[in-house]
Automatic annotation (TrEMBL):
Residues 355-453 form the ATP synthase A/B type C-terminal domain. GO terms for molecular function: ATP binding; proton-transporting ATP synthase activity, rotational mechanism. The keyword tRNA processing does not apply. The lineage of its organism: Bacteria, Bacillati, Bacillota, Bacilli, Lactobacillales. InterPro entries: ATP-synt_VA_C, ATPase_a/bsu_AS, ATPase_F1/V1/A1_a/bsu_N, ATPase_F1/V1/A1_a/bsu_nucl-bd, P-loop_NTPase, V-ATPase_su_B/beta. This is V-type ATP synthase beta chain. Residues 131-349 form the ATPase F1/V1/A1 complex alpha/beta subunit nucleotide-binding domain. Produces ATP from ADP in the presence of a proton gradient across the membrane. The V-type beta chain is a regulatory subunit.
Amino acid sequence: MLKEYRTVSEIAGPLMVVENVKGVKFDELVQVRMDSGEVRQGQVLEVSDDYAVVQVFEGTSNLSAEESKARFLGTGLTLGVSPDMMGRVFDGLGKPKDDGPQIIPEKRIDVNGEAINPMARDFPDEFIQTGISTIDHLNTLVRGQKLPIFSASGLPHKEIAAQIARQATVPSQEGNFAIVFAAIGIPFEEAEFFVEEFRKTGALDRSVLFMNLANDPAIERIATPKMALTAAEYLAFEKGMHVLVIMTDMTNYCEALREISAARREVPGRRGYPGYLYTNLATLYERAGRLMDKEGSVTQIPILTMPDGDKTHPIPDLTGYITEGQIILSRDLYKRNINPPVDILPSLSRLKDKGTGEGKTRRDHAATMNQIYAAYSDGKAAKELSIVLGESALSDIDKKFARFADLFEKEYVNQGFDTNRTIEETLDIGWKLLATLPKQELSRIKEEFIEAYLPTGEDVNPSWQ
């Protein structure tokens, strides 16, 4: 029998304290009722011998301790899942917000998930094509990986997120691929942008959207990525689908954690964030992966905006420790209208070698990737030297590498937000760029690949020389 308590002693921020409780459990759902009949949902955040701290999802504005009653429901936060979720838009707590019918759930799943036995994990090694050259070729995403995008205020991370959602596919499993998109604390205009982009391009038909807006209660933001990952795990491990989870903006999620921590009067860690920020982020990121006895997989692309563009800030710093690399956006490239502005030199996919090669992409993938990295790095160094000493100080080969760097940014990186390149098209563009360098400089590529793929004669663009 459910008990209702009228012993609310304190309300602070999104939290309320209920005293003299018995049998209450951590993460248990709570109904908060007012004398006016208004009902709000909450969850137990902390429990002691005789009191419980409840976080109220809708916020505590206009709530009175004297008039509030708390009913503990005996269950945790769950999500009703069904294949009918595909093509639907939900709020941050999993309630439909697209004017469609209620979902009749096949089952209800605890949003906190279950820890995956490391021995049951299968190694990520299958290529996912995003259609973006700088990712597919140079920072390859593989099925089961978690590869974040580090952005900053004013950079076009929402356009990149929408582009990946439209274009991403597992080439060998195109009909069995799904997107789960979680918008966390974003403005209304940005939410409308995503929904419209998904509908306009038909990507909505293979997607599940969870939208938590900036004017929604901050406490809801903590639940939104858990909802999205629960839906992804259901589609992947019970329906055998390959699911790509895109979560933006994880910085807003961490800010909500900091707000709740401050309301609980916890001792702050770095820059005011709770000391358990690393652990909390790991509980989300480590839900990506493949299982040996399951066909499906969960791949993650979390997107975060680095405060002040600082890579050493706790959010990007801890995210980099947990995930397998990072894609970093460049403000300099964006100012020069090079889009998507991916800065390849500090970017990294630690699993890129596992998803490339013959049978996955193409046999020349790794070699051209390494050569382009080296050539672009040499070109950037030559350009920096010319700024200090003047172009006349450069040797002929330095000038060729500087020219390569300019062409690389213009022809390879600058593909725009609407161009969807196959990995073969990307590799061919890479070879055309490498053809602008003397053949003896291609020291990272086997001779057999040079003979098979390097353009010669009419295939070389004369304007690039």
